[in-house]
Amino acid sequence: MTNSGVNRFLATLISQVKNGKSLSVLRGDGELYEASFVFNKPALRENIQMLEKKHAIKLPQDIVEFLMISNGASLFDTGDGESLIVYSISEMDEEADFYTPDIAPGLFPLIKYAGGTIFFDPQKDNRNLFLSSSGSEFDYMGLKFEELLEYFIRSNGNYFWEWIPLLACRNLDEEEVSLKDWLEL
After folding, report:
1. Which of the residues 9, 83, 136, 163 has an alpha carbon 20 to 30 A from that of 114?
2. Closest residue by Cα to residue 1 from 71, 50, 62, 89
3. How far is 74 from 92, CA to CA, in rounded Å?
4. From CA 5, how far away is CA 149, in angstroms rounded?
């Protein structure tokens, strides 16, 4: 496995919270919270391949690397519902059966958080994440999974994409990118 950002950030985080240890984190309300973490056993490559085959997708390398370290995870759970849940392979499969093709055509569910779901576009290699807080409306995040994970860890588990609206929906060529436009790129 490479020394990617996924590996570096996860290895550091896992080393800090092993054996059920929590971390004190400063949240957006200015209060300190104890955050807990759950990391699962690594996914088997065969299971990743079965998911890809069933849904006719190719998982981006940074997502595969994460799954090979932890097959899903709960990050920065402070007991107030503000954690980030990276789906396991079986959860991705279940959520994909629910969301596609009717609600999120062309997108694949990856993360659950208190405000909605984060999807990736399996047709794009880079900066392929979309955010949905209302079912069938999607905002282009302009991030790849590795970047989202890094920023989330650096922000102590705060939903950094909510801080500045421009982070939630970037513009390309001074024009907002809609889901339809993105899928046609």
Report:
1. 9
2. 62
3. 14
4. 9
